[in-house]
Amino acid sequence: MFEQNSSSSSTMAAESALCSVSRQRERSRPSPAQRLHNLTSASATSSTSTAIPLPQNVFTNPSIQPSSVVNLSHSTDVVIGPMTQYQGPVSIYYMDASMEAHAMQAAAGINSSSNRSRDNSPSKRLNRNTILLITLILLVLATALIVLYVELNRPRSEAANKAIYFGNTYDHDTFPNLGNGHLVIDRIQWGASSNVRPLTVPLRRPIPYVLITHIGVQSIPCSNVYKCSIKMRTIQDAAVAEKILPDIQSNFYVSDEGNIYVGRGWDWANTYANQTLAITFMGDYGRYMPSPKQLEGVQFLLAHAVANHQLEADYKLVAQNQTKTAKSPGVNVFREIRKWPHFYGCGLDDAPACGSELGMTRASWDAKQ
């Protein structure tokens, strides 16, 4: 009985001592940070271990936290704790204060370059380009509105309100305009010679007759200002040198493009008859057809003359072949002008001679002046 009690007492004493030892061991066990410090300290002084510097890329990569790196390879029975000796190959990396600062600077540089790259990203550039484009469009629209406002509020001259007029409205005020694009090319503009004899017979207005002629003799119609100006100078030179006339024959000439070329103009009588306004189609219209612009140009000129009291309101329009034996103004032009409201059928069939009501003789239609 006594032996059993003593045995039980000894067992309890042993268990109590074991618990005490366990508690002491628990209290003496270091924390994880202390164990890592002891591990690195022990590796620095251990003769069986070698301290290998941590590769540079470990510090320059911000995704790796060097303070928590423990690399173990080909090791068994490894215990992380207050141990100073290990069995097997052990590699311990260390990082002092200078290496840690270098790693932080490298990480900061990577973050700043990343921020710069984000600032220059395509989306931001696209946003800037879009803003610039919108600004440019707004400036263009504002300029267009200002120009439109100025044009709408510009004072218009009295001549510009007429359908047919002489006004300097074309090509920076170079050529007067009859309207609808029919230009008036003056003598100085088509290059008329100034070395001619002065005209002596004035043209009295309002004029009662309009005489239509053409150049004839297989003349090709001209279709631009350059070619028609050369043709006008050729006609003038031929009239002065070959026909011994003081100047070009007609008062006005009309080109295929519908422009009006000034011959003797409004002030002086033509070479055909003193009481007529002579208008010549530039070409041979026994062979060629007059263009719609050419016919319209003549009609605009006549309407302008009536509006400005150059012609009588009931003027008579005749062709040259009605006043004398001639092919002028060509069958194609004659066919067209017969449809015009002021056409006068004198000299045809049994009709009286043209100008007889004014006392004009047949010889007066060939004045040669």
Automatic annotation (TrEMBL):
Keywords: Immunity, Innate immunity, Membrane, Transmembrane, Transmembrane helix
Entry annotated with the keyword Amino-acid biosynthesis: no
Bias type Low complexity, positions: 1-10, 40-49
Parts of the chain that traverse the membrane: 131-150
Annotated region described as Disordered, given as residue ranges: 1-49
GO biological process, one term: peptidoglycan catabolic process
InterPro entries in the record: Amidase/PGRP_sf, Amidase_domain, PGRP, PGRP_domain_met/bac
Molecular-function GO terms, alphabetical: N-acetylmuramoyl-L-alanine amidase activity; zinc ion binding
Transmembrane helix recorded as keyword: yes
Gene3D superfamilies: Peptidoglycan recognition protein-like
Occurrences of domain Peptidoglycan recognition protein family (ranges): 182-324
Similarity field: Belongs to the N-acetylmuramoyl-L-alanine amidase 2 family.
Listed name of the protein: Peptidoglycan-recognition protein LA isoform X1
Gene, per the UniProt record: PGRP-LA
